[in-house]
Each structure stands twice: as C-alpha cells, then as structure tokens.
Amino acid sequence: MKRTGILLTLLASTTLVLVVACGGKHEAPPVQRETAVVPTPPPAPGQVVSRETVTTTREAVAPSEMARGVTESARALTVQQPPPPLRQEAMTMPPSSAYVWLPGYWAWNSGWQWVPGHWAQPPYGAIAWVPGQWMPQGQEWVWRPGHWQQDTADALNPTDAVGYYNRGYGRLKEDDLTGAIADFTQAIALNPADAHSYYGRGDARAKKGDLTGAIADFTRVITHYPKWTGPYYDRGLARLNQGDKTGAIADFTQVITLNSKDAHAYYYRGLARFEQGDKTRAIADFTQVITLNSKDADAYYNRAAIRAAQGDKAQAIEDFQTAADLYQQQGKTSRYRDTLEQIKALR
Q1: Res 182: pLDDT
Q2: Alpha-carbon torsion 146, 148, 150, 156, what sign?
Q3: What confidence tens digit (pLDDT) does each residue in 66-86 have?
Q4: What percent of the chain clears pLDDT 70, i.e. is strictly above it?
Q5: By the 8 A CB rule, do 184 and 192 touch?
Q6: I need a labelling partner for 6 at 20 to 30 A (CA). Which of 60, 104, 220, 299 fits?
Q7: How far apart are alpha carbons 79 and 184 in whole angstroms?
Q8: Stretch (H or E) spanning 142
C-alpha cells in the first residue's frame, strides 16, 4: 500500500507539518494499485512530507484449474471438429491486485470440454496473458497455445475484450498510461458491463491526473460492486485530491462501514475532516488509526499537529515524542529530525 504526500498547511499560530498519505487499494482487480497523488515538494516547515511505501496483499491460493489450464495451453492439438462458441464468463473478484484473468477455453479430450477461466499470477517479467485460440487450417482446427506476454507487441484479437483488459493491465504496470487507457477503453467498448476495465481505466486516469474521469470510472465500478471497498476508497482519494472534502468523507465512511478495521480509511477521513475544519473528529479518526496500528508514526504526528493547533501543548508534545521514537526505530531520519524540531518549538 503506497502513501505519498500532498501539500497542506495547518491553520495555527505555529506552522507545523501535517503528514498525510495517499494510498493503496482494497481487494482490487488485477491492475497495479497506484492512486492519484499530487507531486510532493521537498519537506519544509508548514508542508506535507511523503509517506513511506507499505504494501499489503490478501493471501490467496490460485484455483485448482490453473495447473490444468496452463498445461492444456501448452499442448499443440489438431482436431477435425470446429470448437463450440466461447462461453461468456463473468470475472469473479480477484484474490489480489497481482492476479491476471485467464479466460476459459474449449479443450479437446475425445470431445469438447470447457475449461473455466480463473485468476493467475504472472511469472516474473510477464505483463499479460494472451489467450490460446483454435485456428482453422484447411479442414482441421489447430490449437494455438496461450502464453504470457513479455511486452506489449503481441497482436490481439480485435474482438477479445479480456485480451485488451490484460494488455491494459500490463501497460499500466509499465506506466504506459495512454496505452493502458486506450486498451481499457477498447475492452469497455467490447463489453460495456466489464467493471474491471472501468476500474483499470480509473487507475490509469487517476495516475495521469484526470481525477474527474477517474471518479466517473470508480463510480461505474460501484454500481456493479456496491459492497466492494476498493472503488469507494479510490474515489475518496480522487475526491480528496480534487478538493471535494464532503464527498471524500462519505466515501471513506462507506469503506469503514464495510470494513471497520480499515486503518487507511480512518486516516484519510481524518485528513478530510481536518481540511474541513472539524479538528475534533479528525483527532478521533487518527486516534482510531493508532488503536488499529500502534506503530503508525504518521498518525501520532498528525494528531500532535492538530492538538498543537488547538493549544493543547502537553498532549501534542507527548504525541510528537511517540512519533519521533517510531520514526527513529523505522529508520526515517529526516522525519525524526523534523519531529524533534516540532517538539523544540512547542517547549
């Protein structure tokens, strides 16, 4: 889960730094979960400093069909009968953001048998899965095996929505945002109900700075998956970066309603509430972050900054000291030194 900084200044007689975070997804479709952020200037008094990268993925075991699917795709077969039309499959929610969808296909085993699609983790260096196809060759049908795509040069079937989605995911991983948006858009044109492609395009648009477009795409995902925390979280981040504090608070509150132990949602809601001028509730949210993760130095720092702005120097110093100790333990030297300066300024 990635956290980076955005610019913020405390409305207080003493200029302080309020550490904020922009960060990762929750149970996302297989796209690289980087969210919209504002470029971070060098740390300075009265400005936000960047937050270190922390990643979390939900552990999952790939479906048992994976081995069969990969084995089958590696075989070159020739049959006399044409395969049935491909089945329309609904992609399930992925195990984590590192997985790519491998669509189902018809396999020959003394007759046609359908092998269901499934999520799989790409091997090192691969960016997408190019599905296998049965190709006509005279009076016969030859299986062209699927393979993991190592770059974006592989030709795609122009009617293959999943292929465009997977290539879009690969391009997103490579930070080819324009190419990713084009592929996700083509996947949507081929399958307008594909919420995963809307999500991928929303990610790419957010990274590119098109927050309005990203919000629209995340909203489309929510209409399909109203109990999925990810799109609410990402829409909240986009709204917060866009200055829509009320909308951001509503989205982070929905994440918390669906998952009351999501510390990042409390963190961002605390930030939005602070920007809205609701310091009391902001402190309550950062306190909840600390309850869920007592090692979160940034949450202590933020709570200290707000308490200092309210004139509560004693508790502000206590929180700053805890933050400084944690920064030192975590090897964040510049943050540690800055926090000591905040303590010195309050004494």
Answers
A1: 94
A2: positive
A3: 222 222 333 347 787 888 988
A4: 75
A5: no
A6: 220
A7: 34
A8: strand 140-144
**Which stretches does DSSP call E strand in 4-139?**
78-79, 100-102, 105-108, 112-115, 118-120, 128-130, 133-137
Report the candidate in 233, 229, 183, 227 with the shortest Cα–Cα distance to residue 204. Answer: 183
pTM: 0.65
CATH 1.25.40.10 domain residues, the chain? 161-346
Number of residues that this document lists for the chain: 347
Sole residue written with tokens 């795409």: 217
Whole-angstrom CA distances from 316 to 150, 178, 186, 320, 339 are: 52, 45, 52, 6, 11
- Tell me 107's DSSP state: E
CA distance 33 to 35: 6
- Which listed CATH number (2.60.120.40, 3.50.50.60, 3.10.450.40, 1.25.40.10) goes with 161-346? 1.25.40.10
DSSP 62: P
Phi, psi of 78, deg, nearest 5: -130, 130
Query: What does the pLDDT read at residue 17?
Result: 45
What's the pLDDT at 119? 86
CA–CA separation, 173 and 203 (whole Å): 11
**271 CB-contact burial (10 Å; exposed 0-12 / middle 13-18 / buried 19+):** buried
Q: Is the dihedral of CA 323, 325, 329, 333 positive or negative?
A: positive
- Cα–Cα distances in angstroms (integers) from residue 113 to residues 86, 87, 130, 134, 142, in the given order: 11, 12, 20, 13, 16
Asked if 10 contacts 16 with a C-beta cutoff of 8 angstroms, the reply is yes
Confidence of residue 150 (pLDDT cuts 50, 70, 90): low
Element holding 143 (H helix, E strand) = strand 140-144
Cα distance between the two ends of the chain: 35
* CA gap 20, 51 in Å, rounded: 7
